[in-house]
Design brief:
Largest sheet: none
Protein name: Phage integrase family protein
Strand content: under 5%
Order of helices and strands: HHHHHHH
Keywords: DNA recombination
Shape: elongated
Pfam family, one: Phage_integrase
GO biological process, one term: DNA recombination
Domain Tyr recombinase: 1-112
Oligomer: single chain
Number of strands: 0
Number of helices: 7
Structural class: mainly alpha
């Protein structure tokens, strides 16, 4: 399935920096994300690389955790769940809902932000008492 992946200028700059240090013979021959030999990455080589870095750092996680973390951070940053679904490449929300779990505080915040009652009833503004000293 083909999809468009939007990136921020900071990401584009990081990609340009990555491309600038690659060997000249890789130009137009190697994919953007590749092995140390310029060959395409696959889920096994990516997982092996993550495992190697985890050993060096004395930690452990699965590559899928990065996708999960991005999803949660995107939603908590006010990202739209349907936009997330499209970015992840899913045709419906079923898979997105499986690993994106919102906490009660996330749900409470969303409710207070987006509740239609905010547009129906006028908001009360609190005034603070000021000591007349």
């Amino acid at each position: 399935m083909t999809r468009t992946l939007h990136i921020l200028p900071q990401t584009a700059k990081a990609i340009d920096e990555l491309l600038s240090i690659r060997p000249d013979e890789w130009k137009n021959k190697s994919p953007l994300f590749c092995t140390n030999e310029g060959k395409p990455l696959n889920r096994h080589t990516w997982g092996d690389r993550i495992e190697m870095y985890c050993k060096k750092l004395g930690t452990r996680f699965h590559p899928y955790a990065l996708r999960h973390a991005f999803s949660i951070m995107f939603l908590r940053g006010k990202g739209n769940a349907f936009a997330l679904q499209m970015m992840l490449g899913y045709v419906d929300m079923t898979m997105t809902k499986r690993y994106v779990r919102l906490t009660n505080s996330d749900i409470k915040e969303q409710h207070s932000t987006a509740s239609p009652i905010n547009r129906i009833l006028p908001q009360k503004k609190r005034l603070r008492k000021i000591d007349g000293k």
